[in-house]
Amino acid sequence: MSYLLVAIIAYFLVGLEVILDKFLLTSKRVSHPSIYAFYVGLMSLFALALFPFGFHLLSFQESFLILLPGIVFAYGILSMFFAVRKSEASRVVPVVGAVTPIVTYFLSVFFLRERLTHFQILGVVVLILGGLLISFEFPLRINKKKFFHGFYYSIAAGVMLAVAFTWFKIFFEKDNFANVFIWTRFGLFLGAASLLLFPFWRKKIFNSFNGFRKPEKENVGTGALFVANKALGGIGSALTNYAIFLGSVTVVNALVSTEYVFILALGLILSVRFPKIFQEEEDFLNVFQKVISIILITLGIILVSLKRL
To answer: What does the domain layout of the chain look like in residue ranges?
Structure first.
């Protein structure tokens, strides 16, 4: 199976996960992004299911180096959760997705000696432009100092995720997929556990344990939805990493633009039922803006696909 197809399937699952993340965070079913990030890290230990398929011990130096990108990844998703809580998912994710391949490209050229064809480079640029266009809020005002609430969290998330993904690829080139994936999930768990070092976040996380001691109907439903959502996200994350293992880390990260299409479509549908949560704007200018963005994203996918289908 083409790594491009694997990546697109992965981004569909991750897009569905983001929509459910938005619902859980904005509906106050999960009161704070730190709680969300903590439990995401905890659930990353399900990667141990891949234990029989190639896990092996590493030296102290190797294990230290392979755990670090997982920790960086944990803080990247924490930043993204902060951004998603503050703004539309269909605006946050494109900014993260635009920053990630830009940073990834420069890191992969320097550390991985990765080379793309001219068409693929053009495709990456078009994908990024489509992602950036969908993130602007119109009409722009001269005295407006930021694009949207959560914009800076989105930038920070994109940078950290790019560093993590490039680091993952370095190890994928040296070891089997299952072993690298398990070790980096250990790192994600350690990153999530490190949130307990911060008093404010520790208090939030410890308070969330009350829902387990006194389970109410809403808490049980929220927990079930969270577990199902993270199962989807776990499969999507595994497929994303597998696509990076198979092909270009820059192209895979640029293909995150397909996720915006899924998020936009799902967000528009759900905004009818939950308008206060999804907040998708449906006036002509915003719809036109997003349609043009989707056209650019589609063109970008075609261009990055020209080397290998």
So the answer is: 3-137+150-304
